[in-house]
Amino acid sequence: MAQWTSAVGAAQLARLLTSQQERPAGPGARRPPAYRALADGIRLLVLEGRVPVAARLPAERELALSLSVSRTTVAAAYEALRTEGFLESRRGAGSWTAVPAGNPLPARGLEPLPPEALGSMIDLGCAAPPAPEPWLTRAVQGALEELPPYAHTHGDYPAGLPALRSMLAERYTARGIPTMPEQIMVTTGAMGAIDAICHLFAGRGERIAVESPSYANILQLMREAGARLVPVAMAEGLAGWDLDRWRQVLRDAAPRLAYVVADFHNPTGALADEDQRRRLVDAARAAGTVLVVDETMSELYLDPELTDAMPRPVCGFDPGGSAVITVGSASKAFWAGMRIGWVRAAPDVIRSLVAARAYADLGTPVLEQLAVNWLMSTDGWEQAVGIRRGQARENRDALVAALRRELPGWEFDVPRGGLTLWVRTGGVSGSRLAEAGERVGVRVPSGPRFGVDGAFEGYVRLPFTVGGAVADEAAARLAAAARLVETGIPGGVEAPRTFVA
Ligand SMILES: Cc1ncc(COP(=O)(O)O)c(C=O)c1O
């Protein structure tokens, strides 16, 4: 059986290698031999996830031709990569990329550390800021006033409280997407929504196309549901969705579901434009794939010019209403502690989801639903989200400034919204950084947590949850962690216990 899941052609690998920036050598530094430079280039492509793990590399002769180097150079580079654990080969089966055994792949389960256990640790593990008070308190007080009539019922609302379903439907309608309450189901967070969708559509062994990178906990949820994840690489920087690639993958792999975060993608922060949205829906429809669109971040536009210029929701490009299922959440716009999410879909899909849910959690707590409904029926929601946007914007700008000062070699694009910065760590292993961070007082999730197959070793994700002096201190600790990694961490390291939200 072949050991590889995808292949990189010689011309493609040559293109990727030549697109790598020359890393500046220090004064007086000698150029490495050609085979070493080639091995380093391939290693970096694997670390950065631009060549996936378990991808078959071209035969030595083909790569030599594409790069105009001798076959001996390629053979020596492959041999060096094999010795370092970045390549495995078997006679007759070829060579495929790998990560070294000592290089910890992401832990499968991601567990939030309770706030009281953090001590003096700066927590960059979690992209979930505190509640925008006083709105949490006001919303709960408002909910308490509305509770008495519900107290006389059994309290199980598997599709959600009728009042909140109507409110959410009205909000979609106001965004230009006519929606009836029968098209809404309230869930326990976006996680609850996607869990229900996976159970209904993607049984064991079913394929789900996902952005690569993507949000770690959803990837894990899908793995646990037994799905086979089909990664679709995000384009460089904030360009996001390469629609030729999406069309090809959806056509070739014909996955049951495709999961995308089109509004301020987690972790890259990319925002899909309307053309990308339209083409995504078309590609999904053509392949018979249901497109699950996670709008958890959609209200977190941080650049003021976006206030009246956000692209239409993806479901707005699906007039038939059967190609797209939309997931929303109060977690990022308001507070993750509410655990309120929702699904918008065709009424028959909602009915099936509701029926399936009876075996999971029966329903979502009534008081929290009333609180969100109270916020949305007053100006509380807009006020609260406004506070949240202001905090996130300030934190983003503080973090960006501190990183540029402390870690000028780290590269990132500043997203226009969302809560996360996806940072290329100048060739330093993100997993090692996460380990070293634990020692110097900063928790940070490494890139591979957001990849399907251990890719993105050369990345970390940083959230906009700290600002001011704490952002400065966080960047200083990250720089200390990077120095530790570069000079070798003494005494070995424990497995990283970072977590993400
Ligand atoms: C894209 C995305 N989807 C879903 C979630 C989880 O949302 P919830 O707290 O509503 O379950 C998150 C949390 O970080 C997220 O970033």
Automatic annotation (TrEMBL):
Keyword Transferase: yes
UniProt keywords, alphabetically: Aminotransferase, DNA-binding, Pyridoxal phosphate, Transcription, Transcription regulation, Transferase
Top-rank taxon: Bacteria
Domain HTH gntR-type: residue ranges: 32-100
Pfam family, one: GntR
A GO molecular function held by the record: transaminase activity
InterPro entries: Aminotransferase_I/II_large, HTH_trans_reg/aminotransferase, PyrdxlP-dep_Trfase, PyrdxlP-dep_Trfase_major, Tscrpt_reg_HTH_GntR, WH-like_DNA-bd_sf, WH_DNA-bd_sf
PROSITE patterns reported for this sequence: HTH_GNTR
Claim: GTP-binding is one of the keywords in the record: no
UniProt similarity note: In the C-terminal section; belongs to the class-I pyridoxal-phosphate-dependent aminotransferase family.
Protein name per UniProt: PLP-dependent aminotransferase family protein
UniProt source species: Streptomyces phyllanthi
